[in-house]
Amino acid sequence: MQYTVKKLAELSGVSARTLRFYDEIGLLKPAFYGENQYRYYEEEQLLMLQQILFFRELGFPLNDIQRIISSDDFDKIESLKTHKSILQSSLERTDQLIRTIDKTISHIRGKFTMRDKELYDGFDPAKQREHEQYMLDKGTLTQKDIDESWNNVKHWGKNDWERFKQKGEDLNVALVNALTHHLKPESDEVQKLIQTHYSWVKTFWTPNHDTYLSLGQTYLEHPDFREFYNQYHPDLASFLVKAMKIFARQNLS
């Protein structure tokens, strides 16, 4: 069966504009162009679009997806098996988080008492270690920075962590508001927000010019960070990093 851009958009939930963009950058070419210059897609393209959507769901940037699916040794079946394995792991963790939520609700209502450690069941300390190692490898952090960050917060209780998380939430919402109101990264309003961001980061460790820029690149390149910022706005990470570069140039050495 053949699909036009409009029909494939309706079938897949991917906008016609995005499908045309994928064609322009060579990520997903149609099977052929009709005499009317309409794009037509067949089963092979539908399967490839599914692969692209799986990779996007896992937080891969488009240039990485293009590199992976265009490689000579790309195997659709093996790729699907990998996606399945990752999703199963994610489901197991999600199930654990749901059970923790249910326990916490019952705990708050007084139905039973949770042990303190149970409050954090399902949260993944391995992810924290992975992020630390990633930034160590990139040179964003040194082991001294990591030790300093844990030393700064080792006395924190639950309320301290909640306040820190809320500050980050408020900051990201404010940045999205600036972005959607078309404020420039170099504007005074945005730079004040970046000063807040820098102070927020300093809660853990103190970046210099180079390490602050490297942190920004981590926001852009690591799938977990891209996924995190995309939940606020698809352009938030790039907007934030542009503003961080200006702040670093003007304020850090």
From TrEMBL:
Gene Ontology MF term list: DNA binding; DNA-binding transcription factor activity
Superkingdom of the organism of origin: Bacteria
PROSITE patterns: HTH_MERR_2
Keywords: Activator, DNA-binding, Transcription, Transcription regulation
Record Gene3D superfamilies: 1.10.1660.10, Antibiotic binding domain of TipA-like multidrug resistance regulators
Record domain HTH merR-type: where: 1-71
PANTHER family in the cross-refs: HTH-TYPE TRANSCRIPTIONAL ACTIVATOR MTA (PTHR30204:SF90), REDOX-CYCLING DRUG-SENSING TRANSCRIPTIONAL ACTIVATOR SOXR (PTHR30204)
UniProt name for this protein: Mercury resistance transcriptional regulator SkgA
Gene: skgA
